[in-house]
Amino acid sequence: ARSPPAPGGRPWPAGRRPVRVCATMKILVRLPNWLGDAVMAVGFLNKLRAAWPEARVEVILRRELEDVVSLLPRVDAAHSFGRDEAASLAGARRFAGRVASGGGFDRFYCLPPSFSSAWMGFFTNSRERIGYRGQWRSWALTRAYARPAGAHRAVAYAHLLHERLPDAAHGIEVAIAPDPACGPSGLPDGHGPMSGLNFHSEA
Length: 203
Hints:
- There is one protein chain.
- This protein has helices spanning 35-40, 42-51, 89-100, 115-122, 153-159, and strands at residues 26-30, 56-62, 77-81, 105-110, 126-132, 143-145.
- It has a six-stranded parallel β-sheet with strand order 3-2-1-4-5-6, with helices on one face.
- It is an alpha/beta fold and 203 residues long.
- The chain contains five helices and six strands; from the N terminus they run E-H-H-E-E-H-E-H-E-E-H.
- The termini are far apart.
């Protein structure tokens, strides 16, 4: 990339030519509140990296999910909040202000469907705020899409990237890496195969 011209269009004096710095895209993602939904968001994060490989990706999540961050694909920073901080709209606004204190973001993706999550994103100093409409929150988003009818949760999350990545909702991979300290199975020593059930899931 060429440097910008000097004032008046004249050549820059020797040794005075500025260096053009390409700023890194900063993206903030509001993750879902529940463990199962946060895992479903892994597909979105993978697609996000495909869309912007060099971007800095930060996430907002509930404090109870902090341990999940290390399992998520290539997250650069996490901002966690407690129940007390998000118990009111004023508290959510203050928390968002602290998140934005580092200079704001180019994009904010709001995965939960709640009004409070979009409200929080509105105050993160994000140039673009993307999510699904509903619960009177479209005013807080710069791009409020209609959620695809009948879509699996992982597909719906990834669909938010469709303008940048037209095939975002296809070929979604939802997988988390086990803790290396637990061995190949991802389970603590002494534990055999385990199964889990997720009752009342809407995914």
